[in-house]
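Section 4.2 – Deliverable D4.2 (structural model, holo form)

The reporting period included a commitment to supply a predicted holo structure for the target in complex with magnesium ion. Inputs used:
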Amino acid sequence: MTTDATSGLALPVVDEALAERLRQRLDDVENALAYHVRGSADFITEAAGHLMAAGGKRFRPLLVLLAAETGPDAADDKVVTAACVVELTHLASLYHDDVMDEAALRRGADSANARWDNHVAILTGDFLFSKSSLLTADLGADAVRIQAQTFTQLVEGQMLETIKPAPGQDPLEHYLQVVAGKTGSLIATSARYGAMFGGASDEVVSALTAYGELVGSAFQLSDDILDVASDSAESGKTPGTDLREGVPTLPVLMAQASTDPADARLIELLSSDLSDDALHAETLGLLRKHPAMEQARDYVKGQAADAKAMLGVLPEGPVRAALEAFADVVAVRSA
Ligand code: FPP
Ligand code: MG
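Output (structure tokens):
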């Protein structure tokens, strides 16, 4: 679905004028980010710029910029600032996440914990979060409150992932709660900030926040499917990390629900310690071929359709079409 208008953007935007505005503002965001990750010593700047320089799709800033197009003030400087706030928060969380996951690769490069060590990675995450908070102060008290609430949700989601479902709680419900917290929250805030600082009505801000929550969860569900399905060359990460860590994700939960005797070996493996390389490889192989993968993909497409249904408050036109395309891209992403 790539067209000339989309080059440089992580989503298809058919309207050339809109695509050009988004590209220009993403350049502004990129320049501002490079400025904001500077520290008082070269090493701090290097560590803080490491994952940013390694790549990334800039999905969250793009969503801020696109959501801002629903209001009259899309060109306001605060929109670019808000885009930096969400990307810096995201980057901060990746440094911490890779420590928790003991991940070696991120965005096709060494993770910060692998390149340096856990101390550097944790402190760099803290540094980036401090920069994000400083910038949020320029956006006013409401934005600071939203940022703090989002941080709470991110951390709660991440912590819930480390514990089992509550007694009697459906594992899928627990998992969806984790996903909504650790990823849905910041993507919802991206859409919300965009609409707010773009000057959209309260009705549109609410609709875009709900859209962002759904798209954000779909984004993480796709990521979890990719963790099983893709190889490092596609994803820039080590495949099967969730399996190795014993974190049950959508395809795993769906495979575990199978009562087919042919799945007995896979189900046995899924409840064993997969830090062993041979068992891990066997599990990954069986899961990749299992119908649960398709079932999981269908679930994500349903979530993207629910997200698009939230856009009914917007007039038909290029902005709404781009937001719809954004939901579709998230649901079928391959990287
Ligand atoms: C990736 O999950 C992790 C997140 C999206 C959120 C992580 C949140 C924290 C570490 C809380 C601390 C936050 C800040 C701002 C300092 P994943 O491991 O499933 O995805 P991956 O495949 O990208 O590693
Ligand atoms: Mg991770």
